[in-house]
Design a protein that fits this description.
This protein is α/β, with parallel strands linked by helices. It is built from 12 helices and 18 strands.
Length: about 425
């Protein structure tokens, strides 16, 4: 057994030297059986492969990004088929040795640059399959986030069959807004064929992108209502103030507090209770804002108006953490000012006083961890901002997403 493990590691090291890092049999299997399979059992996940036609490697697997756990789920559901996962390294492990043997391809700055595409093409040339999150950041409210058009460009470049694995229930089990595992029993994973290599040849990038968005669409709270899933942890609303910041009743901002299954506004006193199937019931018995996605959509629409009319303005104190190829380090403290066009940080950075400017419409790759931080990515570094009032960051995230959407719409109008 020891000989097999050593031999497998040697093979992996040789593959790494050749710059074609296919997953190690031992490490990949260990990851699946230590992390993936137990999670499938906990979620009582059922896989639906009805109508799926098996595809021979190499192929591309697109996975929805409803939860950080989806990489574990995807690896376990598709096993024994192994994949080189294309992800943000934080989604897997900080241990570069393990991620190396897993064949992980880091998506630096969430951009398919020449280096990343080259690595993917080498894997494909070696008859390996790759897996990619269609959305390049974890869902905020249990519905899809932004899908970058570069995903369609990658599909057109590779011209290999594309399959889709859509996972439901993982967000309910571990929602982005909570620091706790809520506990969902009854998750599903649906595997389907999306494109053949021949079909891709005759499709435009716009058609590919539209098909990808449609195939990876999901709504975790609608899934919960339809399946009548009751979560094991009763603290289902705790942490919602990390993504919900505007009161639907009095329209005040950053006045929401949560406890157990209840959201309350400190300004007007209105309360909402998260029902057993994820429905939000107001204290007057109505469901005017029936779900978390509906609430977030209301916020998004209002933030969009502010950005579009150049009325958006938010500021606060924050801590700056910088990420490089060597890791993250505390860099300083200062203050951010966020307006319709840009996010500006003024303060200290590694012993110097600086002013950093990030234009909203250019940062589709913004990372947002509710209740924790937002992170901008540049060619060399990652700039993570931790606010002393983390609820502010939810609005920052929406404003940047809407600035991107408005810029894309303006560009489309100019082209027509």
């Amino acid at each position: 057994m020891i000989f097999i493990i050593v031999f497998d590691i040697i093979i992996s090291m040789k593959t790494s030297t050749d710059k074609v890092v296919l997953p190690s049999e031992i490490f990949y299997s260990s990851y699946v059986f230590a992390s993936g399979k137990p999670l499938l059992a906990k979620l009582r996940l059922k896989t639906n492969k009805e109508g799926f036609e098996k595809v021979k490697p190499p192929f591309l697997l697109l996975v929805n990004h409803s939860s950080k756990d989806n990489i574990k789920i995807a690896a376990a559901v598709m096993f024994p088929q192994k994949f080189n996962f294309i992800v943000n390294p934080e989604d897997v492990s900080s241990n570069s040795v393990i991620t190396g043997y897993m064949g992980v391809i880091p998506l630096k700055r969430n951009v398919f640059d020449d280096e990343t595409i080259g690595k993917i093409q080498k894997v494909v040339a070696a008859n390996g399959s790759v897996a990619l999150f269609a959305e390049q950041k974890v869902s905020v409210d249990g519905t899809p986030t932004y899908i970058n058009p570069s995903v369609a460009k990658l599909i057109k470049t590779l011209r290999i069959p594309v399959c889709v694995l859509t996972i439901n229930g993982s967000y309910l089990n571990r929602p982005s807004f909570s620091q706790k595992t809520i506990g969902c029993s009854g998750a599903t994973a649906v595997l389907s064929n999306l494109f053949t290599s021949d079909e891709i040849k005759y499709m435009s990038e716009e058609e590919v992108l539209h098909a990808v968005a449609e195939a990876t669409s999901y709504d975790e709270f609608e899934f919960q209502r339809e399946r009548k899933i009751i979560l094991s942890n009763k603290n289902t609303a705790e942490g919602l103030e990390n993504i919900l910041f505007r009161c639907p009743r009095c329209q005040s901002e950053f006045t929401l507090k949560t406890a157990k299954d209840t959201v309350s506004c400190t300004n007007c006193g209105t309360k909402w209770v998260m029902g057993r199937y994820g429905v939000l019931m107001e204290d007057n018995g109505t469901t005017s804002i029936p779900s978390v996605p509906a609430w977030n959509y209301m916020q998004r629409r209002l933030v969009r108006n502010e950005v579009e009319n150049d009325e958006y303005d938010l500021s606060g104190n924050c801590k700056l953490v910088i990420g490089t190829d060597e890791g993250y380090h505390d860099a300083g403290n200062g203050r951010f000012t966020h307006k319709s066009q840009s996010f500006v940080y003024e303060g200290s950075m590694d012993g110097k006083t600086v002013r950093l400017t990030f234009r909203n419409a250019e940062h589709f790759n913004l990372q947002f961890m509710p209740g924790e931080y937002i992170e901008f990515m540049s060619d060399k570094n990652c700039y993570r901002f931790i606010s002393d009032k983390p609820e502010l960051l939810a609005k920052v995230n929406l404003a940047i997403e809407e600035a991107i959407s408005l810029a894309e719409e303006e560009e489309a109008e100019e082209e027509t």
